[in-house]
Amino acid sequence: MPQVTYIEHNGTEHRIELEAGQSVMQGAVNNNIPGIDADCGGECACATCHVYVEGDWLPRTGTPGEQEASMLSFAATAQPNSRLSCQIRMSEELDGLVVRLPEAQH
Amino acid sequence: MNAPANVDHETLAASLPLDRIDVSDPALYRDDVWMPYFRRLRREDPVHYCASSMFGPYWSVTKYKDIMQAELAHKVLSSDSSLGGITIRDRPKDLRLPMFIAMDPPRHDEQRKVVQPIVAPANLAKLEHIIRERVCRILDGLPRGETFNWVDHVSIELTVQMLATLFDFPFEDRRKLSFWSDCATALPEAGGVIDSEEKREEVFAECLAYFTNLWNKRVNAEPRPDLISMLAHGEATRNMTPREFLGNLILLIVGGNDTTRNSISGGVLFLNQNPEEYRKLRENPALIESMVPEIIRYQTPLAHMRRTAIEDYELGGKRIRAGDKVIMWYISGNRDEEAIEEPDRFIIDRKRPRQHLSFGFGVHRCVGNRLAEMQLKILWEEILRRFPVIEVVGEPRLAVGQRDAVEAEGVRQVRHRDPAHVQDGRGGRLPLGARGAGVSDPHPVQVVQGPLHPLDTGVQGVVRSGRAGVEAGRRGGVGQLWRGAEQRVPGERPLGLGQRLLHVADRQVRLGDHRCHRGEHLGEVVPGSAVGPGVGGGLRRELLVDQQVTGGDHGERGDR
């Protein structure tokens, strides 16, 4: 199964295997990774599963769609490599993906 | 829907024809009986059309997932103040206030982003220290071993201090903020300080003048991290009209004051109602983390938000037409069995406590949600350090209708219960103070709840005739009653809005200076609600007549 590495704001790393099709947010929630709140449960409606896509993974995860961009524009700590992890679906192509978690989910 | 007094709401909610269910009825909130009606709608008609209510026709969206869908459909379901904004009540057109919560993108986004940095992580970290210091001071100053008013001493004081800080508002004048908030949300028909829209506009003018003075000072100074300075220097806000400035002020004042205040009060109440949860909390203060969102869910400080369809739109299998009013009932979605396990229970260690609708979702999601949570979290941390128990000793007082919906607020459900009794952490249980003396509430506070607003058109309510032989008694004068102006067939009388029928006179009855005829209807004016047709222009009247006068002497005197 493809793997994702989540790096908490304090540097703690979690390497997790996710089934293809699962969202990166779901993987974090299912594995109790601190720093992802996902208040809306994956509806792209709250920006509390915000992650920074590490390195050169961004072209492969894709960039935010309209709704996601709109929500991200209200996130306090958004950067050019910001994504909402509920909108990133795992696939074999994303095996090895690394995402960093922001200071806080706002 | 105006249900008669003493009705069994479970039965009524289950037996009413669907098209008669009107969940905007203020009495449902005042009496805290809204639950079975929403439960029925969620099961049988989750997107429900009510053709006639005091607010006109409207759709109710009652299920969590449908509310979520509506929140995301902001291109079709508009928040714009010119269409009616975000509250079930349509305010008079010329008095509608533009404010960013009642705007659609892109203008909404531009204005919101001006104030948003005030609650960014870095600023919150600074505020945390200030909040903790104040919480400590407030808690350390509370009376010990006697009853006191929790709402006033803690809920209002803490939120008003916070607001004063965010605005960098003169601290000694901070209670003006809660006054303005209360005025903004007051219902004129309730006959309080704000008994007309004109009066409200006068207070608004005073508020605007005060803040304009602050604006003028700050616009000419270097930008600072307070809300007024941010608005004065913000690209999207520095050229606001006075009306727009006022609108955004009211939004920030009400949004920052009233909602958190209710959650602060609600938390104390819920823990008292659920002693097992309180025990869990005392044994494991780390549960504060999950308790805070649970309080916010369970309280649901804003019962609803409204949208207006600008195109036809399909939701939950129903066709909503362009122009229709759509009410998202957060208070119902937060009790949706399909989204939340055991939703009617207050459980402080839920697995996914943050999954609730109280902050809304989508582009209008509450901008201050983290600040609100932080205030509650710090408050409970400091409470647990000091007091093993805060005991509510008064009866909860639920009222309806003193508050008009301002945009930030919407129909509200507020539940305060006071006074509270603090038990001192240093010793055993302290005397129960006033309760022992039989005085349940030495610090009365008018508390409000509910969708409430002026009742301006008729709502049909079926009222069964009074019990045979019963006459209305009076307590405190006939001014507290209404009398039916016309006689109709007992049992099918349409009630005026804000009225509740108590008795049908079965003989002539004299009430104070009034003489009621046989068959005439006598009832109460629902406290705090507007007075309906046929009630002689009265305003708020506390009623309470349920005193039966026995014997025939009143009837006889009625003849004199």
Tell me what you see in this structure.
The complex is a heterodimer of chains A (106) and B (560). Chain A has three helices and five strands; from the N terminus they run ββαβααββ. Chain A has 106 residues and is α+β, with helices and mostly antiparallel strands. Chain A has one domain (3-100): Beta-grasp domain (Ubiquitin-like (UB roll), Roll), CATH 3.10.20.30. Chain A has a five-stranded mixed β-sheet. In chain A, strand 1 (3-7) and strand 2 form a beta hairpin. Chain A is globular and about 35 Å long. The mean pLDDT of chain A is 95. Chain B has helices at 9-15, 26-30, 35-44, 64-72, 107-115, 121-140, 150-167, 175-185, 197-219, 227-233, 242-273, 275-283, 288-299, 330-333, 369-386, 553-559; strands at 47-50, 58-61, 77-78, 147-148, 304-309, 313-315, 318-320, 325-329, 390-392, 396-397, 416-417, 420-422, 481-483, 499-504, 509-511, 514-516, 521-525. Chain B starts with 8 loop residues before the first helix and ends with a helix. The relative contact order of chain B is 0.15. Helices cover 36% and strands 11% of the residues of chain B. Chain B has 560 residues and is an alpha+beta fold. The interface between A and B is medium-sized, with 20 and 22 residues.
Based on the model shown, name its key terms.
heterodimer; A: 106 residues; alpha+beta; Ubiquitin-like (UB roll); five-stranded mixed beta sheet; B: 560 residues; Cytochrome p450; 11% strand; globular
Give me a quick take on this structure:
The complex is a heterodimer of chains A (106) and B (560). By secondary structure, chain A is α+β, with helices and mostly antiparallel strands.
Q: What would you report as the Rg of chain A, rounded to the nearest angstrom?
A: 12 Å
Q: So, CATH architecture of chain A? A: Roll
Number of helices of chain A: 3
> Which percent bin holds the helix content of chain A?
10-25%
SSE series of chain A = EEHEHHEE
Average predicted confidence as pLDDT of chain A = 95
Straight-line N-to-C gap of chain A:
31 Å
Distance between the termini of chain B: 38 Å
> What is the CATH topology classification name of chain A?
Ubiquitin-like (UB roll)
The CATH C-level name of the domain at 107-300 and 340-424 in chain B is: Mainly Alpha
**CA-based gyration radius of chain B:** 24 Å
Strand order of the largest sheet of chain B: 1-2-8-5-3
Q: Poorly predicted ranges of chain B (pLDDT <50, ≥5 residues)?
A: 399-499, 525-560
Assigned CATH class of chain A: Alpha Beta
Global structural class of chain B:
alpha+beta
Q: Estimate nothing, just give the exact number of structural domains of chain A.
A: 1
